[in-house]
Design goal:
The chain has eleven helices and 22 strands. By secondary structure, the chain is α+β, with helices and mostly antiparallel strands. It has two domains: 3-324, Peroxisomal Thiolase, Chain A, domain 1, CATH 3.40.47.10; 343-465, no CATH class. The two termini are 31 Å apart.
């Protein structure tokens, strides 16, 4: 039987919260940095999920989002390359609807059950934007989640599925719209959310022969905390059966939201517990999973809870607005338009720039980045092997802070990073506070946007401070 053999997540470091000047709310929500989008967050969640697993065993990648950076170009192929997966795998984008995450998860389960793949990676990621200071902005959040779907080593087995498809114009975003739109609130809630989710959950119960009391944890979609409480009461669940929806800490992460709640439920699940994840958007999907005996002690990553505990509040709403570059314009530096990157060069240098491969000398073991024909240590020519550096820990050897660079995040931090297995790279640092940058600082690599010119999203790896829990633990 198909099911979940591993999971991971990613929540950006930064939050809007009570200490954010101009936010005017005690509730927190996660916000992607200026160089993050649904693709970069998907890569981060994928790395978290793949920790301790052989990436060469992954047979396919399904990417779910409502905010892809490209309208016509597959994003799953970018993610698969950045994660250093095999080239002979199946990749697909599942987009344009909030229940894309559960659609991707069900598709992966069906593929494994049918035998067309042994292991599939499902990644859901979103960074939806609401109008400034509106309810959609206040209740939304940015984040990503990933699952390995297989038929062996399962921590949770598939335990039923039910779906409803219905054309419902309650929330939408047309091509070119920067913000999510919605119809009249009462109609959207009563005729959309409450009716459709009620039918979907009751349909699942009837189809699978289970009752409300049999459910251990319910990972339920909702646009905000108040409606989530109403839905729980109407569906007849007790508070202890419901997974924390994380409003006030993270927010609604769009297509990734019900799956991130499922990942949170898996973190604390006990063997035999029935977990339901319920999505919404032009209908509803209900997926059931039964935690196996392998659920205990299965985590070796940060997961949802780890990333939530490792956060930093922004100083002002203006900083967030500048990152989004939609309703505030920064006129502090006027510089010529950046030149369009060479598509030919991006393709030619994909191994070192996207997969982030260095070279290790087969004679003396010296690591170089980017790979070179001649080993600078022992002078051996054309005798090296590839080494993936994207998941290697490193430390700052030296750094420079450029206050004159034309960048959104001034000052521009440039660091030289030494990796633990060897090798050194010169790169930018992001997700950092100026006061914390220092020589010897522990860092890790993060897939980020350099810039977008002529519609080309130029991605590369940047150094970020190693995420740690409040206790100081780094997983």
């Amino acid at each position: 039987m198909a099911g979940i053999s591993a999971f991971g997540a990613y929540v950006p470091r930064y939050r809007l919260g009570a200490d954010t000047l101009g936010w005017d709310s005690a509730s927190q929500r996660s916000v992607a940095n200026f160089d993050e989008d649904s693709v970069t967050m998907a890569v981060a969640a994928g790395i978290d999920c793949l920790s301790g697993h052989d990436r060469q065993e992954i047979d396919g990648l399904l990417f779910a989002t409502t905010t892809p950076p490209y309208a016509e170009k597959q994003c799953a192929s970018i993610i698969a390359t950045a994660l250093d997966l095999r080239r002979d795998i199946f990749t697909a984008d599942i987009t344009d609807v909030l229940r894309a995450g559960t659609t991707a998860l069900k598709s992966a389960l069906d593929s494994v059950t049918a035998g067309s793949a042994k292991k599939l990676l499902v990644v859901a990621s979103d960074s939806r934007q609401g109008a400034p200071k509106g309810e959609a902005e206040r209740n939304s959040g940015d984040g990503a989640v990933a699952f390995i779907i297989s038929a062996e080593g399962l921590i949770a087995e598939q335990a039923g599925f039910y779906t409803i498809s219905e054309n419902m114009m309650d929330t939408w975003r047309s091509a070119g719209d920067p913000f999510v739109r919605s119809w009249e609130d009462r109609f959207a809630v009563e005729e959309g959310l409450e009716r459709i989710l009620g039918e979907a959950v009751s349909g699942f119960m009837a189809k699978e022969g289970v009752a409300v009391k049999d459910v251990g944890k319910l990972a339920l979609y909702s646009p905000d905390a108040r409606r989530h409480s109403q839905l729980v009461r109407q569906l007849g669940f007790q508070p202890e059966q419901v997974q924390d929806p994380l409003f006030g800490r993270m927010g609604n992460t769009g297509a990734a939201f019900p799956l991130m709640l499922l990942a949170g439920a898996l973190e604390d699940a006990t063997p035999g517990q029935l977990l339901l994840t319920v999505s919404y958007g032009d209908g509803s999907d209900v997926l059931g999973f039964r935690a196996s005996s392998k659920i205990n002690g299965s985590r070796s990553n940060f997961g949802v809870s780890g990333y939530l505990e490792s956060s930093h509040q922004l100083d002002s709403y203006e900083t967030y607005a500048k990152w989004r570059d939609v309703w505030l314009t920064d006129s502090s530096s006027r510089r010529p338009q950046a030149q369009s990157p060479s598509v030919t060069a991006l393709w030619r240098e994909s191994e070192q720039n996207i997969r982030f491969h260095g070279g290790v000398c087969n004679q003396c073991g010296y690591v170089q980045y980017p790979p070179q024909r001649v080993c600078v240590e022992c002078r051996t020519r054309d005798d090296s092997s590839s080494i993936r550096l994207s998941d290697q820990a490193g430390t700052v050897f030296t750094y420079s802070l450029d206050y004159l660079a034309g960048t959104v995040d001034t000052p521009l931090a440039i660091v030289v990073v030494d990796f633990e297995p060897g090798g050194r790279v010169l790169c930018m640092m992001t997700d950092r506070e100026t006061s914390e940058v220092q020589i010897g600082m522990p860092v890790e690599m993060s897939f980020r946007k350099l810039r977008v010119v002529n519609g080309i999203h130029n991605y590369y790896w940047k150094a970020v401070p190693r995420r740690r829990l409040p206790s100081g633990e780094a997983i």
